[in-house]
Fold these 2 entries.
Entry 1:
Amino acid sequence: MNTSIEEKLKEKNINPTAMRMLVLDFMVKQQGALSLTDIEKGLAPADRITIYRSLKNFEEHGLVHSIDDGTGAPKYALCVDDCNTVSHHDLHVHFHCNTCQETFCLPNTTLPVITLPEGFHSGEMNLVVKGTCDKCK
């Protein structure tokens, strides 16, 4: 197991249990965002509930962010380094490929500025572009 995985967990004040290290190591090696089912299949026969709890813990500590890509199951992707327990700074566009069903973070593509009517206050913003990825074109 890569010691940097353990260090990454400790940096976010997450106790580096064996399962958490496995989940993070698996996520680091992937290209796109992953659903709970994707991770469960990749780490079979790992316990689904334990994986889910690990993901929620990661999200609470600013290690991963969840993405609602419209498929009905949230996807999880690694956060940028400056995310923390108070707020996520992953305001970027996500791309969902209709062919391979993968979801990708596009951190260099910023979200458009949205002007809300007076009295409206945003809590979160999610922009998912759907189409065909470069591998499926």
Entry 2:
Amino acid sequence: MSGLEQLYQQIILDHAKRREGDGLVEAEPGHAWGESHQHNPICGDEIRLRVETDGARVARISWEGNGCSISMASASALTELSDGVDGVELLAMVQEFREVMRSRGTREADEEVLGDAAAFSGVSKFPARVKCAMLAWVAAEQALLASNGTAAEPAERA
């Protein structure tokens, strides 16, 4: 294993332990939010992810889930990366991550765009694990689109 692969493996393990954003948080009054539940029937991984926006900006991502270290670490890396970004930028990051995951190891992730999530580049060589890495990203995309920029009290949308 190369030094870079070892570093990437360590980043994934660190995120799997740290679980940035773990624990669903109620949206602030007046903020728009959307939620998505995703399940990987192949391995049983599951996540419920909430994207809260303040105008065009992602105010917070929170989630709860159970699954392998790849899926939980990927959710953590996504949460850390998305802090304060514009919603359009988040969708672009999701698309970039998706393209890397679909490359089957032929496309290296751009660390400038994906930060720690670039560590998942090697996962793309294992098609059975791609869904694990993508789970939170698909949930974030759907949750952001579900928010529709409409502010609501959390109790109204629960």
